[in-house]
Amino acid sequence: MKQYIVDAFTNKPFSGNPAAVCVMENWPTDEAMMKLAMENNLSETAFIVKEQQRYHLRWFTPGTEVELCGHATLASSFVILNYYETESNSVTFHTLSGELIIERKNELYEMNFPTYELKEIPVTDEMEAAFGIRPQKAILGLDLICVFENEEQVKCLEPNQKLLMNIDGRIQNATAAGINVDCVSRSFCPKLSIAEDPVCGSAHCQIAAYWSDVLGKRIIKAFQASKRGGYLQCELLDDGRIAISGEAALVAIADIKAQL
Hints:
This protein is an alpha+beta fold. The chain is built from 6 helices and 18 strands. The protein folds into 2 domains: about 1-115 and about 245-255, Diaminopimelate Epimerase, Chain A, domain 1; about 120-240, Roll (Diaminopimelate Epimerase, Chain A, domain 1), CATH 3.10.310. The protein has helices spanning about 30-40, 70-85, 125-130, 150-155, 160-165, 205-215, and strands at about 1-10, 15-25, 45-50, 55-60, 65, 90-95, 100-105, 110-115, 120, 135-140, 145, 170-175, 185-190, 195, 220-225, 230-235, 240-245, 250-255. It has an 18-stranded mixed beta sheet that branches. Strand 1 (about 1-10) and strand 2 form a beta hairpin. The protein is globular.
C-alpha cells in the first residue's frame, strides 16, 4: 500500500498542514486504519479506495474518524490528480459529508464544501479560563468560534488543553486582520486528540462564512497562525456552499509493509 505525506495549504514542504494519504485497493478494518492513524500521529490520515468510477475517502485523527477534513481532502486530491488521474483536473470523493468535488486550477486545489448554520452564544467564564483572554464573541456552528479583539491575541494564545476538554466541540479562534488577509485563526481540537491543528480547512467553512457576513465580502483570504502557518482562499457561493482553495507540497512517498 502506498502512503503519501503531503503538506496542505502551502507550496513549501514542512509548512502548512501535513496529512498522510493512503491509496488502497480494498478496505482494511476500521481498527487497522485507526492504528495506522495513531502510528502516523498526524492530525489526519486519509484512506482512499476507488469504487467503480469514484473514490471513497475517509479521514482518521489519532483518536477517531471524522465527518469532514479540509487539509486531508486537499492532500488527497493532490495525490489522485498527480499520481492516479493525471489527465484529469477534477476528482469526486464519496465521504461522510456527501459528494465532494475538488478541481485543480493551476497551482490551487479548489474544494466545494458545505457551510453550517451559525448562531451567537454567550461568552462564558470557562472560555476565558481556557484561553487566558476573554473572547469578544462566541459563535456556535459545527465547532465553537471564539472571536478576539485583535490578531496578536490570537497569535499569542496558550490555551489550557485540560480546560478546553470541558468545552463542547473543536475550538476555532478568529480575528479580523490586516491588508494581506481578512482573518487570522488558530484551531484546537483536544477532544480529537489534536492539541492544535496547523491549518484547518473544514474550520473555515465556518470562520470564512462568519467573516464574509461581517465584512460584506464574498471572498475571504485567511491565514492560520500556527507554528507551521498556512493560507486559504475562501469564496461563498450562490448555492450556500463554500469554495476553499489552497496549494500543496509533496514530502514523501512510502510503502506500508505492515499487514493491515
